[in-house]
């Protein structure tokens, strides 16, 4: 996408909000490489996220997730779908904000639960009452998610529609930034 900064675009938010599918489509629209942190961890460790949770525990998974996020923050020109808990780490939040634009995807809770009930690939939900567990996790993470100023509601959007909305927003944002750089701004 001509004229747009090469800084990374980080998609954050709760599991099931569409970070991976929207991210893949956004990367295609922008002509960028797409990285899904969960898929990258699975490739590096040769096991699924669920298997990592089971074999090593959540703490070890979070440490590996943190190291990967910090490593990816040193790259550029990528669309990166983060894991739902990645931004809970303050150092990771800071690194991603400094090296790119963080966008939070969210979905109305009823639709979110419906999406999550259709899969068994979410280790934090295994063997749990999904409605209760989603509510509990959202309460813990809401404060972090609410600090992200660009938010996209994916409740009633296809991944393509959500990606297009983000793409259009990024073009407008870049146009404004370009105009600001080409004019004098006087502060007294």
Q: Could you walk me through the main structural features you see in this protein, from its secondary elements to its overall organization?
A:
The protein is of the alpha/beta class and 188 residues long. It has one domain (8-181): Rossmann fold. It is 54% helix and 13% strand. It has a five-stranded parallel sheet with strand order 2-3-1-4-5. Helix 3 crosses helix 4.
Order of helices and strands: EHEHHHEHEHHEH
Number of domains: 1
CATH class: Alpha Beta
How large is the share of residues in beta strands? Answer: 5-15%
Taking pLDDT < 50 over at least 5 consecutive residues as the criterion, the unreliable ranges are none
* Rounded Rg: 17 Å
CATH homology superfamily name: P-loop containing nucleotide triphosphate hydrolases
Topology:
Elements: E1 8-13, H1 19-30, E2 33-36, H2 37-45, H3 49-56, H4 58-72, E3 78-81, H5 90-99, E4 100-106, H6 109-117, H7 130-145, E5 150-153, H8 159-181
Parallel strand pairs: 1-3, 1-4, 2-3, 4-5
Helix pairs in contact: 1-8, 2-4, 3-4, 6-7
